[in-house]
Design brief:
The protein is built from eight helices and six strands. With 215 residues, it is of the alpha/beta class. A six-stranded parallel β-sheet has the order 1-6-5-2-4-3, with helices on both faces. The radius of gyration is 17 Å and the shape is globular.
Length: 215
């Protein structure tokens, strides 16, 4: 029944619906950011994972934060959302969240004395962590059902055999997104690894994708 309903919605789909920015967003979205924000809502409504592959410096962070703020305001977010990034971007995400979505309760899960108990996350809207910390804490973090799992600079998991790629695929989340300015750096096989996290099975097996597309 669910498959039939999803198929009907896709067949009836005409265009992405306009979506007002959340009330708690401080500042304005530029037109292309508004389009990206509405696309993220489309993915959410249809239950797809997606890769926001805007160029560097074009505001992927604010688009993702606007989505999370909107879902928190509407009551859709019943659990914390996880954002994973290189350590060098932790401060930037903290700063952008405080600036554009100050109402979101943000936890930086990266300190040496961090609490790995999954129930800790229930006190927050957004959990920020790094690929390295996630790798070390994956056995605890995979026990929590996140609302969103978002990978920033997702080319970090371009190698599907890497420990980081294996770790992110273990995460439990209702929705998944990746953000990157360079979804493909060397070969199209790197896309398979990112989509194995986003929409498992969509691109077939790794060997199938390699034969049909990468080669």
């Amino acid at each position: 029944a669910e498959f039939t309903e999803r198929r009907r919605r896709l067949r009836d789909f005409a265009s992405i619906a306009p979506k007002a920015p959340p009330a708690g967003l401080v500042g304005e979205l530029r037109p292309y950011q508004q389009a990206g924000y509405e696309w993220l809502h489309f993915l959410h409504d249809f239950g797809f994972g997606g890769c926001l592959a805007d160029d560097m410096g074009t505001g992927k962070t604010i688009q993702a934060l606007a989505l999370l703020q909107s879902l928190t305001e509407s009551g859709h977010a019943q659990a914390a959302s996880l954002i994973v990034m290189p350590r060098s971007l932790l401060f930037n995400w903290q700063r952008e969240a405080a600036r554009f979505t100050p109402a979101l309760r943000v936890l930086v899960h990266a300190d040496t004395d961090r609490d790995t108990a999954p129930e800790t996350f229930d006190q927050y809207d957004v959990v920020l962590t790094t690929y390295g910390v996630l790798l070390r804490d994956i056995e605890a973090m995979r026990q929590y059902a996140f609302h969103y799992a978002i990978l920033d600079e997702s080319q970090a998991v371009k190698n599907p055999a890497s420990q980081s790629a294996k770790a992110v695929r273990l995460l439990c989340a209702d929705h998944r997104l990746v953000l990157t300015g360079t979804p493909v750096e060397n070969n199209t096989g790197e896309l398979w690894s990112q989509f194995a996290f986003l929409n498992p099975g969509l691109l077939g097996s790794q060997e199938y994708f390699r034969k049909e597309f990468a080669l």
